[in-house]
Amino acid sequence: xxxxxxxxxxxxxxxxxxxxxxxxxxxxxxxxxxxxxxxxxxxxxxxxxxxxxxxxxxxxxxxxxxxxxxxxxxxxxxxxxxxxxxxxxx
Length: 90
Description:
The radius of gyration is 13 Å and the shape is globular. It has five helices and no strands. The chain is mainly α. Helix content is about 60%, strand content about 0%. The protein has one domain.
């Protein structure tokens, strides 16, 4: 599996709310995979996009909004903050 389109096709169960898979953005794919994917799916996504890009997307989208809302589960934020600090630090 080399392309993001192939990853989406194989992992539609992670993005069950999407009607048009061709229009889904990388930010939504990262969010769904980190929140709902298993370790193998996360690692496959990292191989496709690169760990630095996945970390950048995660870090830009995981902080709460001014209203205090985020789409990432608290456990996911905690784990991947540590993971990306260790493996994707600049």
